[in-house]
Fold this sequence. Notes:
nucleotide-binding; Rossmann fold; Serine Threonine Protein Phosphatase 5, Tetratricopeptide repeat; globular; ATP-binding
Amino acid sequence: MQLLERQASLEVLQQSARDLRAGQGRVVLVSGEAGLGKTSLLESFASTHRGRERVLWGRCDPLFTPSPLAPFQEIAAQMGGRLSALPDDQAGSTVVFSRLLQELHRAGPAIYVIEDLHWADEATLDAIKFLGRRIQAVEALLIVSYRDDELDQNHSLRNLLAVLATCRTVRRVPLAPLSVESVRQLIQQERFDPEIVHRKTGGNPFLVTELLVSGEADRVPPTVRDIVLQRAARLPKAARNVLEVAAVIGPRSDARLLRRIVGDDADLTDACMGVGLLRAEGETLVLRHELTRQAVLESIAPPRRAVLHSQVLEALLELGTASASLLAHHAEAAGDAEAVRTHAPIAAKLARSVGSHREAADQLARALRYTGSNRPEERANLLEALAEECALLDRQGDAADTRRQAVHLWRELDNPRKEGSNLAALAWPLVRSGLNAEADVCSLRAIAILERLGPSRELAAALRMQAHLRMLDRDKDSAMAWGRKAIAMAEAVGDLETLASAHLAVGAAMLVTDDLRGRTYLNRCISLAREHGFDGLVALAYLNIGSSYGEQYRFTEAERILKVGMAYAFERDLDHALHYIQAWLALTYLYQGRWTDAADLALEVLQAPELAVVSRIMALVALGRVRARRGDPGVWPALDEALDLAQRTGTLQRLAPVRAARAEAAWLGGSPERARTEAEAVWDLALAHRHPWHVGEFAFWRRRAGSEVRSPSWIARPFLLELDGDWQDAATAWAERACPYERARSLAEGDEVACREALTLFDRLGASPAAAALRQRLRSEGIGRVPRGPRAATRSNLLGLTPRQAEILLLLREGLTNAAIARRLHISTKTVDHHVSAVLAKLGVSSRLEVAKLEASPQPTILGGVAKYGDIGRPE
């Protein structure tokens, strides 16, 4: 078939190949619906490079549950088997992916093509994410194709595409249907009407070609199924059987496997190729198109289809070369319960070993469907394993339900050790779902059961979970007591992972209450975790240190630790920890007066796929407070969502930051009554926990709103000074904490000189509501020559834009697309979308074209404030 309307796409691929020869690795994403010619495009491109660079191919298969790293295994075979050790159930995904990167580096310049990524397993998607972030330093061009019309909102591939959107090494090649003119060129026969053909096929090259081959000029079949079955009908019965077996085997059929099933009839494959339904690739037979295979499969009666799957399963077992996931696929399709129970758990174990947690969960769910109540112990073990996978996937509701079932079965089996272990594990998905009270009940029940059985790893883990719950509730003494019990038990039974995590719980409980001795425990956790390869615990330790410092307003130290943790989590693709670290870093930037950085980072977090609730709450708090302090729109939608999520937890850790942000937003919005209500909402809870910073801030807002508040003497010193009216020392205390906005707020309570200094700080920060309120007050008090703030001319030039929005405006005037702007500014496309919408709204225009027509303001006028004031004093 002619390659029409694909020159621009080929040029992107060729430019990427030129980059490869220059030593720069690239990832190219080729997308389009089935039949648009993705394979034809890639084959045309590859044909121009054979003899110059190695071109290696891998494919993803449409199995019910995909095989882990299947396309990389296929590529490995072409590389001489260097990657044949993948996957390795003894190695974690980071080790496997690092090994893969090393092998690509050693292989030298090469082009790697992976087709049909929409069928990929989670490990393959994670591997491509891993490579996409690091491929620039490798002489490799990785081209992947996928069907973009088959991705629903929950498809795993969407997560990968969202992550790769921010990688500068990634290029996209979306394929569009052919135009009527191109269809006319393909037809070149007067008896076909190009307009009708185009309308019937939607310009899909595959469907157009199938239509032409069918010769049905007067009746265009509505679907490819009719075309395929019409061709299949021309075959003799034995050849149709060969075709059906090939379709059941999969998109590609090994000749040995096919012959083992159909015997001498395998010679009839020539007939199938003669009608264009099969083609040969060496010893492999390939159906012309996946749509062809689906049409053949649907034409087979279900009972016969099950028989054919059974025959394929038997042949695969005899050959001994199939993966457990492939065997489980055919076993389920054949309705062979025993085979499913045999192969699906093995497939799950292998999938988990390389980080394919979705595939592991699917395999375990498959096994459970064929494991009835007459096998209670086997079923309980499967439920236990499935709960683990669901928790890792952040499917906390499913994880909790599955754990409950496991608890019930182990209780019926009179196995208290297993019952207690699963009760303790149940606490985790419950607390992640905001059901803290229920989590606590389960944790204490687990401990009561396990303590009767004596020291054990299960009891150590249960004690550690209770310590963690108490730490989350900011109950220091209780958390330390439980944590020390867990440490002693873990040491006694030799459970190093629980030992490290118990140190984390104790250290975090201490540090978050400003007891710096907690660092000793946290450092011990990091040391143990690094020594024994518990990467997730290392990231969690950095996360807890940084967020604890942040909660104690030690923002300089918080920033340093959070950035170390962010680099660690990013390097190991620990996205759950990474997102929470980023959310707290956004809060740190907020208090440091770096409001543009805070808002941008918070938006990045909120746009992340599969974001945990705890990360979302903290990012929403950062975004809501920035918007409130700048007087931007969108304050209450962010803070309302944050409150809805935080209320589910019932914990001070989540409720206090949200209520404090809402109290400030209400005050700045001119609603003191609402501010008082927000500040009083968790006042008693904060007092009960003797949290000096939360109590201090709530006392501050209650006093501002007109309440008579008797402040405890133990509240945080800057708030205590403010409440005592000592504005000078309060301003100094806030300066020592690197909090310029709070410093200006204290100065605004002082004499005229201090108020003028406060006004300057507010203006530099872009704190419009606070600055406007202070100007009004000064004028009402008769103070003359109150600075007007940013001049009208300056505001006109700035158009009310933040520095980042001003940058976006300049790039819009250059005619750059959102994707190009994202690459220029090193931020995600979604963040650019948000900024562009804000710019259009502030300019009062509805399109980018109208932006281009506006008279451009000089760049120094728009961006000059950034250079003048730096990070802390940006005029927002």
